Amino acid sequence: MGTVVISLDAELAWGYHDIDPLPDEKFETARESWAWLIDAFEEFSIRATWAIVGHLFRADCDGVHAETAAPNGWFRRDPGGTAEEHPLWFGPDLVESVLDSPVDHEIASHSHSHVEFGADGTTRDIAESEVATCVALAEEWGLDLESFVFPRNNVGHLDVLAEHGFKNYRSTGRRWFSDSRFRRAGKALDYGLGLSAPGVAQPSLADHGLVRHEGSQYLFSFEDPVRRFVRPLTAEPVVRRVERGLDRAVETDGVFHLWFHPNELRSAADYERVRTVLTAIDDRRDDLTVATMAEVGRRVRRASE
Predict the structure, then answer these.
(1) Does the pLDDT value for residue 235 go beyond 70?
(2) Cβ–Cβ contacts within 10 Å for residue 203, how many?
(3) Is 174 helix (H, G, I), strand (E, B) or coil?
(4) Quick check: 158 and 207 in contact, CB under 8 A?
(5) pTM
(6) How far apart are CA 265 and CA 30, in angstroms?
(7) Span 162-209, pLDDT tens digits
(8) pLDDT at 187
(9) What is the pLDDT of residues 256-290, one digit of tens each?
(10) Are the beta carbons of 111 and 54 closer than 8 angstroms?
(11) How far does Cα 270 stand from its chain's mean position?
(12) What confidence category does residue 236 fall into, taking pLDDT thresholds of 50, 70 and 90?
């Protein structure tokens, strides 16, 4: 039987706080889309791995975070104060909504403040601080974090994750056009003509005893203007790729790992894309199981014993 995993990079404003100018339009409706996803997952009885930025667990802060190690000026946009005053920078009610759902979601980590772990300036001390802080915040909620999703998929400091009890992390695969000078044209051809299918594989034990989960498909990966020319010629390109990935998982007993950010749901078409995908998963339930990163990771570990 095949398996599908959905992981979500849940970050609100923290996903953009280091970008100038701050692109408010990218996250101003993030709370609404988060709540919609909770309801949609419940409707279809589909569980997901919610990789949540640690700062969202906080109800308030001083906006400085002198107790943490961070690049100079890293918290310059943190408004401090309370969740009631700054709902796009704090999210304890959103964390609660995941925990209160009748669907058995996994809460994972997306770091404390969206530091890129693989960036040149991210020292081990910074990585250690980010991981230790988010683990401590989760413990205050009675949560034991098993899975980690790296901000912007920039993998680094795996040893730090292992030392703090993490068992799983997500990475991303590369496509045939990734390193091409004609990347955009190659991507348009690939998605429009269906030249390749998403990767489907079994996660495996990697460095430091962690289980590496390779993301198969990013749900909002084809948003270029060229998409409007491709769409009339074929089905919604990304949805078609997802369906091919689901079918490959069924055929090979593999794992299809879909990922996206809740804040990427901004238009009626975006919501419809997610609903269509959830329907496609539901239609294959006889041959496809839905699992979280933690569940698949435990399966990999059992198989390796």
Answers:
(1) no
(2) 24
(3) coil
(4) yes
(5) 0.91
(6) 8
(7) 999 999 999 986 543 345 454 444 444 444 444 456 889 889 999 999
(8) 42
(9) 999 999 999 999 999 999 999 999 999 999 999 99
(10) yes
(11) 16
(12) confident
215 SS3 class:
strand
Structure tokens at 136: 């401590």
Torsion of CA 158, 160, 162, 167, to 10 degrees: -70
Q: What does the pLDDT look like over 64-82, one tens digit per residue?
A: 999 999 988 999 999 999 9
Give the pLDDT confidence score for residue 222 in this predicted structure: 52
| Amino acid code (one letter) for 125 | D
The 3-state DSSP composition of the chain as helix, strand, coil percent (nearest 5) reads 40, 15, 40
The position carrying tokens 């308030």 is 60
Identify the three-state secondary structure at position 52.
strand
The helix (H) or strand (E) run that includes residue 299 is helix 293-304
Q: From the DSSP assignment, how many helices (H) and strands (E) are in the chain?
A: 9, 12
Phi and psi (nearest 5°) for 23? -85, 75
Structure tokens at 190: 């690939």
Count of residues making up the chain: 305
Other CB atoms within 10 Å distance of the CB of residue 10 = 28
Three-class DSSP category at 87: coil
- Per the CB < 8 A criterion, the answer to whether 86 and 97 are in contact is no
CA distance 280 to 258: 13
Q: Are 294 and 167 in contact (CB under 8 A)?
A: yes
Partners of 61 in the beta sheet? 81
Rg over CA atoms, the chain: 19
The three-point CA angle 168-89-33 to 5° equals: 75
What is the average pLDDT across 3-13? 98
Tens of pLDDT, residues 119-154: 999 999 999 999 999 999 999 999 999 999 999 999
Place of tokens 């998929």: 153
